[in-house]
Write a structure and sequence with these properties.
The structure is a single chain. By secondary structure, the protein is an alpha/beta fold. It folds into 3 domains: 53 residues, no CATH class; 154 residues, Reverse transcriptase/Diguanylate cyclase domain (Alpha-Beta Plaits, 2-Layer Sandwich); 262 residues, EAL domain (TIM Barrel, Alpha-Beta Barrel), CATH 3.20.20.450. It contains 20 helices and 16 strands. Strands 8-9-11-12-13-14-15-16 form an 8-stranded mixed beta barrel, surrounded by 6 helices. α5 packs across α6 and α6 packs antiparallel against α7. It is elongated and about 110 Å long. It starts with 6 loop residues before the first helix and ends in a 10-residue tail after the last helix.
């Protein structure tokens, strides 16, 4: 069995190879030869001449241990690229030169494969590699990491500042995003880029450098599409926080730290409550309330989104029974379902079991599905689950409408009952004519399709009034009420009911 060399010994041998085989060592060869001849004559010179190559070999200057700085010529597979990164990392550390490690990811690549076939996806991947190669220098290394991800490790140089790295990332991005024609069809691609300079890596190993570039790519994906992010200390701290939250997530779900807070939805015609949306909130025993923007990525990394949906559904159904028992009217609760939950073959069975457990009719549950999920869902389990839930009697809400690319055919195909207009269209709508035209177009389309509408992010009376006048059916946002724990909902419902008795009705466009 081959022995595994100690990492410290490996690093020492690599540094020795760097010092003995680098350009500075060549300057000493004449001195060594002259000294050997001076001290021992021709015999010593012959011995030294024979020993020097052996020393180079022992130091690891051959291909097996030292990877040349020149590129192999083709796109490197993952293992070879990682070895290249390790070699460049050691070189930059010893020679005090700079390099940058970039990760580039093609966005929505799975959808491209689903729509156009795997052969087209493979062709796009090959053309992407060709385009990246054309932008890079001969000494730069290009690797393919799988999952539509590519990595670039630039050849070491004396100076490489942040601005130069950003410019290189932008050139790579622009090259990749040029339209690709396949069988007469033009396909458009977008890409996110994250990179880390060698000097800014948080640790001392090549693995730390690779993880830092990966972290920058994840940050770019969160701010995408087509975002570019450079690794910094804030990302490092955020990654450490996510790692801690990921470790705590399972316990938080099982012990009740993560529970739904409820935000009311009201009718623009009557002002009455037409439902609540259940929004996940995490009350950490040490950190207090944690923002969903922080913990939802941690739950996704821990593959716990399905478990989150189960917890949210259980507490939402319990809340409906409690409201019924208190004699207040809450027609339904909306629960968000992401792609991973909707892809579960047992989803329909689980929801039916929970409804029977609480003795609730299916129409008390509004299944909220992101527009991006509907737009990209092929005819597979996601499609079957959404349609089956609609046939069961659940309300299908299309969430964040206007931010994705859902077509009218998608709305019909999934039997969507209500579209939720994204808050980006609602902000300052009472003062911005362009916003008003956009909302009007959405409402007209919804009316023609026979689906209801709900506007999210309503914060002012002016926005509320405008939406009512334009004919939007329901509104939700801080202007009505902030999300609240269940314990506060009963008092809010009573206060809201009393307020309705003293307020004039806001007449909607459908009645005016």
């Amino acid at each position: 069995m081959a022995q595994i060399e100690h990492p410290m010994l490996t690093g020492l041998r690599r540094r020795l190879a760097l010092y003995l085989t680098g350009p500075p060592a060549l300057a000493f060869l004449p001195c060594i030869s002259l000294a050997s001849y001076w001290l021992g004559g021709e015999g010593a010179l012959i011995v030294v001449s024979g020993l020097l190559p052996l020393i180079y070999l022992a130091a690891g200057a051959i291909h097996e241990e030292r990877i040349p700085l020149e590129r192999y010529g083709d796109v490197l597979p993952r293992a070879a690229f990682d070895a290249k990164v390790a070699q460049v990392h050691d070189h930059c550390t010893g020679a005090r030169e700079e390099s940058t490690l970039m990760f580039l990811m093609l966005e929505e690549f799975d959808q491209i494969a689903g729509r156009h076939g795997q052969a087209t996806a493979d062709l796009i991947r090959q053309r992407t590699a060709d385009r990246l190669t054309a932008v890079l220098r001969d000494a730069d290394a290009l690797g393919e990491l799988g999952d539509a991800r590519f990595a670039i490790c630039t050849a070491p140089m004396r100076q490489l500042d942040l601005e130069t790295c950003i410019q290189l990332a932008a050139r790579l991005q622009s090259a990749v995003e040029e339209p690709i024609s396949v069988d007469g069809i033009t396909i458009y691609i977008t890409a996110s880029v994250g990179f880390c300079q060698h000097a800014r890596a948080p640790g001392r190993t090549a693995t730390d450098w690779i993880e830092a570039a990966n972290t920058a790519l994840r940050e770019a994906k969160r701010h995408g599409p087509t975002a570019i992010r450079a690794f910094n200390d804030d990302m490092h701290r955020a990654q450490q926080v996510r790692s801690t939250l990921r470790d705590d997530a399972a316990t938080a779900l099982d012990t009740g730290q993560i529970q739904p807070w409820f935000q009311p939805q009201i009718s623009t015609d009557t002002g009455e409550v037409t439902g609540f949306e259940a929004l996940a909130r995490w009350n950490h025993p040490e950190r207090g309330m944690i923002s969903p923007a922080e913990f939802l990525p941690a739950l996704e990394e821990a593959a716990l989104l399905e478990r989150l949906a189960e917890v949210m559904m259980y507490h939402s159904f319990a809340a409906l029974k409690a409201w019924d028992g208190a004699g207040v009217t809450v027609p339904q609760v909306g629960v968000n379902f992401a792609g991973s939950e909707l892809n579960n073959p047992r989803l329909l069975e689980k929801i039916k079991w929970e409804l029977d457990r609480f003795d609730l009719a299916p129409n008390r549950l509004a299944v909220e599905v992101l527009e991006t999920v509907v737009a990209s869902a092929p005819h597979d389990m996601i499609t079957r689950n959404i349609n089956a839930l609609g046939e069961l009697g659940c309300t299908i809400d299309l969430d964040d409408f206007g931010t994705g690319h859902a077509s009218i055919a998608s709305i019909r195909r999934f039997s969507v009952a209500r579209i939720k207009i994204d808050r980006s269209f609602v902000i300052k709508a009472d003062r911005d004519p362009e916003q008003q035209r956009m909302i009007g177009a959405i409402l007209t389309m919804a009316e023609r399709l026979g689906v209801e509408t709900l506007a999210e992010g309503v914060e002012t009376v002016g926005e509320h009034v405008l939406l009512a006048q334009l004919g939007c059916d329901h509104v939700q946002g801080f202007g009505i009420a902030r999300p609240m724990p269940f314990e506060q909902t009963l008092d809010w419902l009573v206060a809201h009911s009393e307020k309705l008795q003293d307020m004039p009705r806001i007449m909607g466009g459908k009645d005016s």
